Amino acid sequence: MGLITLLTDFGARDWFVGTMKGVILRIAPNTVLVDITHDIPPGDIAAGAFALAASSPFFPPQTVHLAVVDPGVGTPRPAVVVQTRSACFVGPDNGLLTLALKGQEIRGIRRLENPEYALPSLSHTFHGRDLFAPAAAHLSRGLPPARLGPAWARLASLPWPEPTSEPQGWRGQVVYVDHFGNAITNLPNHLAAAAGKRCRLRFGNNRSCPIGSAYASVPLGRPVGIPGSTGFLEIAVHQGHAARKFRLKPGSRVQLRQLRSSRP
Amino acid sequence: MGLITLLTDFGARDWFVGTMKGVILRIAPNTVLVDITHDIPPGDIAAGAFALAASSPFFPPQTVHLAVVDPGVGTPRPAVVVQTRSACFVGPDNGLLTLALKGQEIRGIRRLENPEYALPSLSHTFHGRDLFAPAAAHLSRGLPPARLGPAWARLASLPWPEPTSEPQGWRGQVVYVDHFGNAITNLPNHLAAAAGKRCRLRFGNNRSCPIGSAYASVPLGRPVGIPGSTGFLEIAVHQGHAARKFRLKPGSRVQLRQLRSSRP
Amino acid sequence: MGLITLLTDFGARDWFVGTMKGVILRIAPNTVLVDITHDIPPGDIAAGAFALAASSPFFPPQTVHLAVVDPGVGTPRPAVVVQTRSACFVGPDNGLLTLALKGQEIRGIRRLENPEYALPSLSHTFHGRDLFAPAAAHLSRGLPPARLGPAWARLASLPWPEPTSEPQGWRGQVVYVDHFGNAITNLPNHLAAAAGKRCRLRFGNNRSCPIGSAYASVPLGRPVGIPGSTGFLEIAVHQGHAARKFRLKPGSRVQLRQLRSSRP
């Protein structure tokens, strides 16, 4: 019994995702289907990549991750399957799979070009249904990826903004704003852990906040830097919406500042 | 192991859909449940009918499609099951099932009136839970539809606006606006295919666009007519929201215009 | 094959819920997962409690209900499992489980403190993934609740506003506004049933409406009191949004008024 996750920017209000599931279940009736999200902002490859990287490590071995954020659908951008030691990733080769693959051993990449494993008639705009869903379904039934098409060497990669060190700490940026308004940065939690309590996050128009271990570690409505569940520091507001309050969005600058010790 | 799809206007924010699933799984524990959508605009039977017609053909044979957009709940409107060669459709008889049944051989229609296959106490407003979900669950376990109630001859039908031909092409209208803002028309793709590249879509206040095979076949922000994945031409904007940009909504007029050839 | 329901305020737009499901399926691969909702307003324990109470009675025996609306995550608030005769409830001990447990025989309460049944590394902010999901998964595989941690005697309870009787009827309040804009009150349906047709609901700024059995029992756009599917009277508007029209929200006052008989 295979497991397929689905991540798209198709939204939940139309029939797109349900239809992909119908296609999958016709091919692989015993597959378990799990939605990651379908509310990636339309065409936002970076947000999709982050969500896939944050969720995929928590799934059982041999999961097939089907991800479609595909503004180039209908152009000749490749459609691929990437096999790692523990999973398969199916999607357009536009950087969407990049972050999830970071640090993983890649065992093979194939282009989805064998029409035997796609729907008979390929629409111009819904490859999620016609190409990607059938490929994922066949993989989850055990089809070797090599059957799906020719090998592919280069994978388009999404630039990931690495933080840079400064005399007094680190400079980074917001990479994702979540449902609660928490602004997730590219600063790994361990940077704050290394500095102990003697550091602050600086952001926005000259604002700053301490690092805490719970939203409730600061008064109501006040900001706090939290070592986040994705491994990166987040700017949150106790029972508030940090991104709205401080106008934070992907790309907003953030600094982790070591406090000067008052002792010698 | 049966398969039931669910399509409603109940929204995702309350407990309505989850509760229907609980009712189904108490009756038919091994049923696979697939959501089509629950974000049909409240009471919008036409939108629900379109979504059901667009998705249902992609499901395995013997799927039970449970659809509830039911502004007349609590009035004496019939609740029905319609059996086709490949599926069962369960829902209110208010036109919601019409488009999905178009062109299909109907093997039988029954009214859901046997209280043995409903919850013991029928609420006034939640027949999705008390009447439709139990019926779908029993059908997915193999109950013959005839057990659910008496035969029913007339099925309420939803008017479908057929396109009309004009000297220079076809006149139609928008029938659905999707999550991406694409305006799906009632003009079948083959009308444009027959005309080749020598036609344009006209819409809104004297706007028009070419027919293309990808959103990216026009510059960023420009409109394009796309042969859509539901079989109908769509008006889209490359990385934009066509419906918002051109104020298109269901009922908006559209024309497919054959271009005059410059050659004799 | 176990069944786990999920109810959170995590929203559908990020990877949070999908990730919890990945964690569950790694531990209990054959579990059936049903979403109640993930759109509880952030931190709104009362709304979560109402949704859980409205849905949980409709699930099969031995269902595990996993509910996470947890503004105190990261503080020392207890995490618990509550066992009743027919189900297990897993969540933070902050009142969220209260309404669902009302009137049920509680067979045991345990704190989730055995690290053997949590993820190896507990984040500060995502106990849904690291603590609650693993516990629910192990329970659904049959683990006795006692293995999860020490017994716990007091359960935080959420105040439930009981209606109060008045000379001419009952005084209550709105407790939940649903997707359709219906304002669900704390007045049990039977209060209206007892009064027959000779009563009205009063609300807002001197407004009132009759009790009816269908939205369509009043003209379009007019309000009607409906004996609701959760067992409580609701204020609805025929094809309208009652809460918006009359500015009703949780806490808004409502009266059920017995009409004076004109006969002796």
Detailed description of the structure:
With 264 residues, chain A is α+β, with helices and mostly antiparallel strands. The first copy, chain A, is 20% helix and 30% strand. The first copy, chain A, is built from 6 helices and 14 strands. In chain A, strands 7, 8, 9, 10, 11, 12, 13 and 14 form an 8-stranded antiparallel beta sheet that branches. In chain A, strands 2-1-3-5-4-6 form a 6-stranded mixed beta sheet. In chain A, β7 (164-166) and β8 form a beta hairpin. The termini of chain A are far apart. The relative contact order of chain A is 0.13. The model of chain A has no long low-confidence stretch (mean pLDDT 94).
Distance, first to last CA of chain A? 63 Å
Order of helices and strands of chain A: EHEHEEEHEHEEEHEEEEHE
Largest interface: A-B, 31 and 37 residues
Low-confidence stretches of chain A: none
The average pLDDT of chain A is 94
What share of residues are in beta strands of chain A?
25-35%
Range of helix content of chain A: 10-25%
Instruction: Please state the CA-atom Rg of chain A, rounded to the nearest Å.
Output: 21 Å
Described by its quaternary structure, the protein is: homotrimer
Q: How would you describe the shape of chain A?
A: elongated
How many strands of chain A? 14
Please provide a brief summary of the model:
By secondary structure, chain A is an alpha+beta fold. Chain A is 20% helix and 30% strand. Chain A has helices at 16-27, 45-55, 98-101, 127-140, 189-195, 242-246; strands at 3-8, 32-37, 63-68, 79-84, 87-92, 106-111, 164-166, 169-177, 183-188, 199-203, 207-210, 223-227, 232-237, 253-258.
